[in-house]
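[Automated response] Your request has been received and processed.

Submitted sequence:
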Amino acid sequence: MKRGYLYTVLFMVILSAVFTFALAASYEGFKPAINLNAALQQERAVLDAFGLDQGLSNEEASQKYDEVIREGEIAGLTVPVYEEDGQVMGYALPIEGAGLWGTIRGYLGINARLDEATGLVFTEQNETPGLGGRIDEPQFKEQFRGLPIAQGDAIRYGQNQGVQLDAVTGATQTSSAILRILNSALDDFFAGEGN
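Generated structure:
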């Protein structure tokens, strides 16, 4: 028995509706877990900006975050603040800007004296895997720990007050974008700090 075009179209519409409903229902069912994982990713990123997320389980990281991180204000910005025993140890400055293929977001940890970076972490980047995507590798990010910063002094590749900062080989535009994003965030931060 041969079926006509109407049967085929009707079958495709019904099948599409069933799968669309199933996908929407699954998303709604998993939404709390998705939101919890997104919050945990942000918490771990902030801890990593201060060098505090060294081999912690998800539960330990969440507990550590609740113990030592609070929201605070500096230079007109609301930022995560790292405190121990009531003393401010540092600030997680949000960074955001255009990379080669999309927006790059993350945090630059800064010590309480505002003269040294404590770490760099990316929460979002869409750079080319194997090239620009290497900005997310520990080898690249670790070189920002202990990097001297100061108002009016731009971060650049090469020697920075005794610290060697290397770009990602083969990813010139992404490497340049990182410097542009960091220097812009620091300029805005120090400008707000002076007011």
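Summary generated for your ticket: The beta strands are 69-74, 77-84, 87-98, 103-111, 117-124, 158-160, 163-165. The chain has four helices and seven strands.
If you did not submit this request, please reply to this message.
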